[in-house]
Each structure stands twice: as C-alpha cells, then as structure tokens.
Design brief:
7% of the residues lie in helices and 14% in strands. The protein is mainly beta.
Length: 102
C-alpha cells in the first residue's frame, strides 16, 4: 500500500509512505515493553520465563524488513524507531526514535 504525503510530521517521512507491510494483533504494549523495544538487540525479558519474547529477539526481527519500524499501541501511542537517524526529526544515537502520544 502507498500512503499519501500531505500531512506528515516532516518531509523526511515521505520515503516511509510505502510500500508497507502491516502486522496486527490485539495486544497492548506496557510501559516496560516500550522501554525494552527502544534497547535495540538487548531485550529486557530474558529472566521472565512467563513472558513472550523472553529470548531477547522479539520485536527486533522487524529490522530484517525495514530500517525504520513503527507501531501503534492501544490506539493512543505511535512509536517510530529510527536507528540510522534519517527520518525522525531530532533523532540521535542516544534517542534514535520518537514516541507520539495522543
């Protein structure tokens, strides 16, 4: 799917408008999940045997498909991860992405 470019946060996002792969489920990321996802390749669930993604790869597999994954959680939070600091305004090595809350 190709998305429009009329109402983007910045012109850098034009390259991110498609084609796109959409994956959906009805789970909501907790604050702990959101912090863990930001720690590229580290994982924060290795000691939690009851947790999904406990082996430390989980969400990080998306980097096999895209350089700049994004997701919406609970319909109120948009997270855009930009480890190459190419698309998200203000992204840097220490904070390579942005969280947008409704």
């Amino acid at each position: 799917q190709q998305h429009g470019t009329e109402s983007l946060p910045s012109v850098e996002w034009e390259d991110l408008q498609g084609p796109a792969l959409l994956v959906w489920n009805d789970s909501v990321f907790s604050e702990k999940d959101l912090k863990g996802i930001q720690q590229l390749g580290l994982g924060n669930k290795r000691t939690d045997a009851e947790s999904i993604g406990m082996y430390g790869i989980g969400f990080n597999v998306v980097y096999h498909l895209t350089d700049c994954p994004s997701f919406i959680s609970d319909g109120t939070t948009l997270c855009v991860l930009d480890p190459h600091c190419r698309y998200v305004p203000g992204a840097n090595v220490l904070k390579p992405g942005r969280r947008y809350d409704k």
